[in-house]
Design brief:
The chain has 92 residues and is an alpha+beta fold. It has a single domain, classed as FHIPEP family, domain 1 (Glutaredoxin), CATH 3.40.30. The protein contains 2 helices and 4 strands; from the N terminus they run βαβββα. Strands 2-1-3-4 form a 4-stranded mixed beta sheet, covered by helices on one side. Strand 1, helix 1 and strand 2 form a beta-alpha-beta unit. The chain is globular, with a radius of gyration of 13 Å.
Amino acid sequence: MVNEGRSEVTIRVRGKKGDYWRFTITSWLYEIKDILEQEYNIKIRIVEEDEDRNLPAIFIGDIEVGEGVPGEEGYLIEVLKKALDKIIGRID
């Protein structure tokens, strides 16, 4: 069920088009999207953007929250949760 009052947050993955690591991060984001949406009562939109970077970077809105590839999805969740806590505040 969609809560119409939820805020929308855009998570951007910037990196080289066709890059394996950009694809990996984006895939992980789609796998954990529901977890973050439920925990923060937000709607998440995931966007890939082409940018000539050696390592892909993750942005929430226009704020860079990480560069490179975390060792596993669990680390990605922690990076995003820490950033979301600062950016939108924790919703209990």
